[in-house]
Amino acid sequence: MPAPEESRFDRRLAEILDHATTVFCDKGYEGASMRDLSRASGMSLAGMYHYFGSKERLLYLIQKHTFSTIVDELKKRLEGVADPQARVRIFIQNHLEYFMANQSGLKVLSHEDEALKNGFNSEIAAIKRQYYRICLGLMEDLKRSRRQRFNARTAVMSLFGMVNWIYTWYNPRVDGTAEELAHQMSAIVLSGVCGANARGRANRGRSQVGKRKMPNRAGRKVRKGHASRSAGR
Length: 233
Description:
mainly alpha, single chain, 233 residues, elongated, Tetracycline Repressor, domain 2
């Protein structure tokens, strides 16, 4: 068990990061000042500079906390689950549940993705790569288990494109709970990637039929100007 003092510190840090997330969401990273962050958190300006040094460090802490939390929770949920489709569904639901409860955080992460400099970005990039690789591994496992031929990277990036912009359109009265929305999105993703082979075979079949019906004109020669005169008749 953590010491009481550590628990109070962690709670206070979480509160400050929540307030900072709201400020960055409302004003944007560039538009927010340390004074804005100080007012929102209730900490003195001198205290903000003493403990955090800059608004960039606050943005770094927000991103580190967010990605570390979502990766750790995902790993726990995936334990003991063997079915590849179920594991993809878990990934989608875990992502949606976290960010639907923290929509301001998702907006900040999406809009301020490249704001971190001065070495802060490398650590965050490493955590994000880990998250991407977990999802890529899930797609590759699904691909092997179903003997599919879809591009796993394309599937992963398409999935992220779908789930990372929910803060712009999500309405709980219309779109349901995180679990309901995850069920619908999982059906869309899994139907798409698992139907790739069938569509590919159908398209190749139509292509072959078209080739057989196409007359062979390779031996014909057309005099210059003849085609244009025929078209004008």
